[in-house]
DNA sequence: ATTCCACAGGAAGCGACGGCCC
DNA sequence: GGGCCGTCGCTTCCTGTGGAAT
């Protein structure tokens, strides 16, 4: 009874407590704002390129470069949305398809996804890929229209499955009778072009737009605008916004990170019952963000990767692939886990490196061979804390 | 200049799995 | 149910290589 009563009281106070947020959604990166500060040039470039088919010209394909959180996706989605509205007004059918290649990372899946948005029923797997392509092709060409295909994080797709799909998509126009297709490729890998087939390269980079990172001042403007939507008036202090901007600017001007910081800061402030978001909340938010990321990443790691990571942790000093592998094999025997080959473990090490949990640098020790120098990339306490519950 | 270590990392391919088709 | 197909995690086999030691 006692517990129930206090719990009810807790809910009551929580519900009664006034939230400092007006619309928290505005701080999520899925949100596409009405106005994108400091990206006017990029927006008009992209719009000008994509609008040309409406004037009867052949559509161009576009390549967009820029680091994470520089607004590439936001600009592409924004222009796509506007374009669609223009089309509706002028009675020209325009379809904008957005695909994120992180999950959709094979030829089959891209085509299946496209076919699906044009109303085709394609199974997740099973069909020959050419059949999926035909199905997509026919349904696109079934009526006169203009299609913009936005392929976000296209580097993931190319590195995993090659550029065959891009070859298909960029060549489509010569075979389509009724419709026209533009491909917008977005990537944060500036070297991606080197992986591409020359034919794909030339047709995809007919137009190129480069997004420079935001500086602290620009981030401040962006945060300011979003804060106006997300929070109630006068809640966020200028200092808090400046700090968020400064911290994110240090990390190559990542606006996404700046927004995350501000959102978490707000949540922390609210939890503490504060009516204002201040610098101290931002500092705590920074700490929490890092902590959460590490723990979440480690927790969702497959068993084998955890053992590899545990080996690196136990060694406690920069070690070679061989050393890590020996200890890993030991741990496997002791825990009754099947042992993978060194080749595979080498790949697992590279994956952990990419996740930022460990640092793996290829070094040559001359006569004593070439190996990776492997060390933890995050504080060991956090790793052992995240690992201990699951080993 | 040559040798040679301890791997890196590419290529091919295998088997299991989930899912299509007829 | 049998014949395909694509994907995933993995093994096997392989060639390549930076630089200390000779």
Task: Walk me through what this model shows.
The protein has 391 residues and is α/β, with parallel strands linked by helices. The protein has three domains: 40-211, Rossmann fold (3-Layer(aba) Sandwich), CATH 3.40.50; 214-297, Helicase, Ruva Protein, domain 3; 301-388, Orthogonal Bundle (Arc Repressor Mutant, subunit A), CATH 1.10.10. 53% of the residues lie in helices and 12% in strands. The chain has 16 helices and seven strands. It has helices at 2-16, 40-51, 72-89, 107-117, 129-140, 154-161, 164-171, 198-204, 216-230, 238-250, 255-271, 279-299, 303-315, 321-335, 342-355, 380-388, and strands at residues 62-66, 94-100, 146-152, 180-187, 207-211, 358-364, 370-376. Helix 11 (255-271) crosses helix 12 (279-299). The radius of gyration is 25 Å and the shape is globular.
Brief overview, please?
This protein has 391 residues and is an alpha/beta fold. It is 53% helix and 12% strand. α4 packs parallel to α5, α13 packs across α14 and α13 packs across α15.
Q: What's the structural blueprint in terms of helices and strands?
A:
Layout: H1 2-16, H2 40-51, E1 62-66, H3 72-89, E2 94-100, H4 107-117, H5 129-140, E3 146-152, H6 154-161, H7 164-171, E4 180-187, H8 198-204, E5 207-211, H9 216-230, H10 238-250, H11 255-271, H12 279-299, H13 303-315, H14 321-335, H15 342-355, E6 358-364, E7 370-376, H16 380-388
Parallel strand pairs: 1-4, 1-5, 2-3, 3-4
Antiparallel strand pairs: 6-7
Helix pairs in contact: 2-3, 4-5, 7-8, 9-10, 9-11, 10-11, 10-12, 11-12, 12-16, 13-14, 13-15
The structure holds a DNA duplex (22 and 22 nucleotides).
